[in-house]
Amino acid sequence: MLAPATLQASPLAALGPRLAAQPVARSGAVSHRPADTPVLSRVFVTGAAGFIGGHLCQHLKGAGVWRQVPFVRGAQSAELLRTQGLEAVQGDLRNPVDVVAGLKGCDAVVHLAHGEQGPKVTRCLLQLAAKHGVKRFVYVSSMAVHGPAPGPEAAREASARIGRYAHDYSDSKAEQEEAVQAAYARGDVEVVILRPTIVYGPAAHFVMQVVQEARAGAYTVFDEGRGVCNAVYVDDVCRAIEAALQTTRAVGEAMFITDDHPITWGEFISTFAMMVQPLPRRVQLSSAAAVQYWAVHPPAPPPALWLRAWRKVRHLGGWQPPLAPWPPLGRVQRECFPVAFSNEKAKTLLDWSPQVSFQRGAELTRAWLSAKGHLL
């Protein structure tokens, strides 16, 4: 296990200005917050067909006190949720008519969906939520708002900064956070922003990526696996989201959702790779060599239609695209991450703490992988 501290500067700094932050806002909260909030009960959940969204819907159902409205785009996703005892609303977040139909009677929103028009969709959703009487808006952001290679100041929310990093996902999440905080500053709606870290569990993208590689006979780690992996089990994220719906202390605030004990990427990858039979071999890679390769061979952006199809089916059985000669640059950045995030703010404001250790979370994930036939 890693102590809650930072590693040495990431070798990704060699990428130069492309990864340099251009600070535009502090990640702290607007100062005012309400003294009291009505009890919330009916929750509109976007991204309900995704990894976290699917787990959240089951979590809220199990809690027995929430009436939820899972909002999904595809008929197949809606039918899948129905088979799980959840009545989903089918629609397109880009269509205000669909959104209003789903929001009817809801007093809270959990916004998990992320797509090509994320900032535009989030601004529209905030406006419609305020117009139709939503009291609480929980935006599930990401640690990615601090960029792929932040400095030690990012370990805690008070000193962490949000910037622009020429990185589509990071920049989109940052822009959406700004829209959420702006809505709160206007008094439109109460907001809570959660920044989950590396969320894993059954059907998680991070896990399936490792398993797919291991099933080919070998798995790779960068720089002996020393990078910081801020892993958090999906059920703990769901409990944090539920807490954000219930407490008033977190209104107007943004906070990391992560485990108490960060691990290394070597531990994370090896744990899941070595579940595969026959056992794969471990291959050591250099992040500097990978960065050099991608500098000479920049990846062509995938066609938009292909990318949409990948996003649509990725959560169904954990399918992943074919591997490139070198792991993609995004993976290099992720697995050479230099910062261990603190969860103290979430513990204080949400009255929450992670309950699932990495060892236990890995066991639960292994059971799912085995049941789905992914380990042979």
UniProtKB/TrEMBL annotation:
Residues 43-251 form the NAD-dependent epimerase/dehydratase domain. One of its GO terms (molecular function) is aldehyde dehydrogenase (NAD+) activity. Coiled coil: none annotated. Signal peptide: none annotated. InterPro entries: Epimerase_deHydtase, NAD(P)-bd_dom_sf, NAD(P)-dependent_oxidoreduct. Gene3D superfamilies: NAD(P)-binding Rossmann-like Domain. One of its GO terms (cellular component) is cytoplasm. This is NAD(P)-dependent oxidoreductase. It comes from Rubrivivax rivuli.
